[in-house]
Design brief:
The complex is a heterodimer of chains A (308) and B (414).
Chain A lengths: L10 H10 L6 H13 L3 E5 L5 H12 L3 E5 L6 H4 L1 E3 L1 H13 L5 H8 L5 E3 L1 H5 L9 E5 L6 H13 L1 E4 L3 E4 L5 E6 L7 H5 L2 E5 L4 H11 L5 H16 L8 H13 L7 H11 L3 H27 L1
Parallel strand pairs in A: 1-8, 1-9, 2-5, 5-8
Antiparallel strand pairs in A: 3-4, 6-7
Chain B lengths: L1 H5 L8 H14 L6 H14 L4 H12 L5 H12 L3 H11 L11 H21 L31 H13 L7 E8 L5 E2 L1 H10 L9 E7 L3 E6 L8 H14 L3 E6 L3 E3 L9 H11 L9 H16 L5 E5 L11 H11 L2 E6 L12 H6 L5 E4 L6 H9 L8 H12 L1
Classes of the chains: A alpha/beta (308), B alpha/beta (414).
Chain lengths: 308, 414
């Protein structure tokens, strides 16, 4: 891991930081990111699946040389798997040992049994261990998957950056972590939590930016192929599919086509590899029934006029 | 607010005031912007230091917008409010100490006034739209695909009705209405060991005595999503529905309410009003297609595409309240119903027309929808909320056997 770096000092510096780590961001995202870092506020990123929300946290961690701590949310996530847990087996043994040694002092035993040695740190507690200037990046991924009870608990953590372990006392972060929260909007997150964060809706990138992303992520892809791929997907997002392809799908498709040694799109290739892009049968059927051909024709026509 | 602004700006500076006015305008336009976010906005502007108009826009956006739906409102308000090019430049000037001397005192005031006028005018225009006269048509057993936009005025709920409604809801027991979560609660007769509680109680006796403690998975109500038909053929029931939906939203945590006629409207926010009359009045304003035509297939499609992934998580139960009278064209209806059923835990269809004899003959929409519901329930009289609750609470016996009903319909049609 590289040395921890300080936070960028302006919006432009933030843009450069992201570009240096191969993340092509637009200015609005850089602004929010910069504000989040500067005001020490959690970032709340919402958007369709596959637009690069999780990636932001990863890029931020690697660009700033910080540790990335990830908390993947799921239904039923509770304190013992998100914050901390005691190592019960070891505690039992400790009690037996003390008994065998003949010690029965209650205070002593309590102190020994509930000591940091037997504390198993889970992501939230880990995230509070940052030293000044090297606070970790704390990614709370897919918050909408967990239930409201955990959300309420998170509210407490995000406002004070401290956790109280009843047996041990309060653990407070020396420097609050850089928090990135992502959701896919399968459920509305409560306003109180959103209010504490800086909100940003991560949009699908425009054609120019998406082309730049493909160039960076799939450098071996043919220039013409990547232009066609991006134009095709941009058009695909305009028809109302059940699930429009995200940037992740664009990258996957471009690398899949490159692996197949394609230099340009043709109707057969599109229908053979459409499974990389679309994941719902209705959508696939619709594209196969001719709409795919129509879009491809339009893309070819537009690109050839642009080339002239 | 002023404390934050004064930290680095001239005390006569207008930027903080302007942000406050801007936030107030946003609040008037329906966004939820509290005083705390205004303080945040000022701090954010100070942190980012105004460079270009774009940066200023996104800085305020980051703090003041918390829902994607609000983006448009913010965009429009920003365009109107921060319209004057000189205003922005003046603000930049306000932040740089050199320019302070030349700043005139009167100009920003004028700009404020003008923008305020513009904003309030837009606001007034929205309000003065005349409510169209209410037309009551009893359109039972009729069906229309035409979009008729109509306003609706509901009679206020009497105290007596309110008390009855609360009572009925309290007695409401939906079938299959408890789901196990993966969280636990202490329970002396529970089936699982609770090591943490054991350790704590063991510490109390100094480890001399270690007694087993138990816990049980906690159960909760799953989210409930109600899709209610408010088209002409159902118009006489809509008041009862809305009372039902309001009482339900008051009692349970996760209730999402949608109504549809020719278009789909999400009433969840409106139904959160504590007062039922206010909630109903809000709902009446929000819905544009009271007692119009029906497009069940199209609205279900819209629901599936835009909302199902947002509200059907965590094992939601869907309650569909409609007479199933779709206009002639039923293509796509069956597919949309199938998708709806596959994305929720249980689909309950509540039909107030099931009691009429002449029902089956015209029920092409019903036949398209019926194979895809888990439960099909009649409501005998929908004049009171208690009837609705009673028919929902009835166990399996209250429902209709979907397969047999379909077979009967086929036979009679043949």
């Amino acid at each position: 891991m590289t040395e921890p770096r300080g936070i960028p000092t302006s919006i432009d510096a933030t843009l450069d930081l992201l570009a240096g780590a191969d993340y092509v961001a637009d200015r609005s995202l850089a602004t929010v990111l910069f504000l989040g870092l500067k005001m020490k506020r959690p970032l709340f990123l919402e958007g369709e699946a596959g637009v690069g929300k999780t990636e932001i946290a990863k890029v931020l961690a690697s660009a700033l040389g910080r540790r990335l701590i990830r908390l993947q949310c799921y239904e039923g996530l509770d304190v013992s798997s998100a914050v901390y847990e005691w190592n019960y087996a070891a505690q039992m043994i400790e009690i037996r040992m003390e008994e065998a040694a003949g010690k029965v002092d209650r205070k002593d035993m309590e102190r020994n049994v509930f000591s940091e040695r037997y504390l198993i740190r889970r992501p939230v507690l880990e995230a509070l261990t940052g030293k000044p200037g090297a606070a970790p990046v704390f990614l709370i991924d897919e918050l909408d998957r967990t239930d409201e009870a955990f959300e309420a608990y998170l509210l407490e953590i995000l406002s004070d950056f401290q956790v109280t372990v009843p047996e041990l006392g309060t653990i407070k972060a020396e420097e609050p972590p850089i928090v990135v929260i992502t959701t896919n909007r399968t459920r509305e997150i409560h306003d109180a939590l959103k209010r504490r964060c800086l909100y940003h809706w991560v949009e699908y990138p425009d054609a120019e930016r998406e082309l730049e992303i493909v160039r960076r992520k799939v450098p071996q892809a043919n220039r013409r192929l990547s232009a066609e791929v991006v134009a095709f997907i941009q058009k695909l997002r305009q028809i109302d599919l059940f699930k429009a392809p995200g940037v992740a799908e664009t990258i996957d498709w471009a690398s899949a086509l490159t692996e197949l040694d394609k230099v340009a799109l043709d109707p057969e290739t599109v229908s053979d590899t459409i499974g990389v892009l679309l994941k719902y049968q209705d959508d696939i059927a619709r594209i196969e029934q001719g709409e795919g051909r129509r879009i491809l024709k339009e893309v070819k026509a537009e690109l050839s006029t642009a080339a002239q | 607010m002023s404390a934050a602004a004064h930290r680095s700006a001239n005390p006569d500076g207008r930027i903080a005031d302007n942000i406050v006015y801007f936030a107030r305008a946003l609040r008037k336009a329906g966004m939820r912007v509290g005083p705390a976010s205004v303080v945040d906005a000022i701090e954010a502007v100070l942190a980012a230091s105004i460079g270009s108009r774009d940066d200023f826009y996104w800085t305020l956006h980051a703090v003041l917008v918390t829902r994607r739906e609000d983006h448009e409102t913010f965009d429009e308000a920003f365009r109107l409010f921060w319209k004057s090019r000189e205003l922005i430049e003046k603000m930049i000037a306000m932040f740089s100490p050199v320019a302070l001397a030349q700043r005139e005192k009167q100009k920003p005031r004028a700009a404020e006034h003008r923008v305020g006028q513009a904003l309030f005018e837009a606001h007034r225009k929205q309000q003065t739209e005349d409510p169209k006269p209410e037309i009551e048509i009893d359109a039972r057993l009729t069906v229309s695909g035409n979009e008729v936009l109509r306003a609706k005025d509901f009679a206020q709920m009497s105290a007596d009705e309110l008390a009855q409604a609360r009572k009925a809801i309290a007695q409401l027991r939906l079938p299959h209405d408890e789901v196990k979560t993966r969280r636990y609660r202490p329970d002396p007769r529970g089936g699982r060991i609770d090591p943490r509680a054991m350790m704590r109680s063991a510490a109390r006796t100094g480890g001399q005595l270690m007694l087993p403690r138990f816990r049980e998975p906690r159960t909760v109500h799953p989210p409930l999503v109600v899709l209610a038909d408010i088209s002409g053929s159902m118009s006489q029931y809509s008041r009862v529905f809305l009372h039902f939906l309001h009482a339900l939203a008051e009692n349970r945590r996760r209730v999402h309410t949608f109504v549809f006629g020719t278009r789909l409207t999400n009433l969840t926010r409106q139904m959160r009003h504590r007062d039922p009359d206010l909630a109903l009045a809000d709902a009446a304003l929000a819905v544009k297609d009271w007692a119009g035509g029906t497009r069940i297939g199209d609205t279900l499609r819209e629901f599936n595409r835009l909302w199902s992934r947002r509200v059907l998580g965590q094992g939601a139960v869907v309650m569909l309240i409609t007479d199933g009278l779709e206009r002639d064209d039923v293509t796509g209806l069956s597919e949309e119903m199938e998708r709806l059923r596959k994305s929720c835990r249980r689909l309950i269809w509540l039909n107030p027309l099931l009691r009429f004899d002449g029902f089956e003959a015209r029920a092409r929409g019903v036949r398209a929808m019926l194979p895809h519901v888990d439960e099909f329930r009649p409501v005998h009289t929908l004049n009171a909320l208690s009837d609705l609750c009673a028919s929902l609470s009835a166990g399996r016996a209250g429902g209709v056997d979907v397969k047999r009903w379909l077979a009967d319909a086929e036979r009679r049609a043949a």
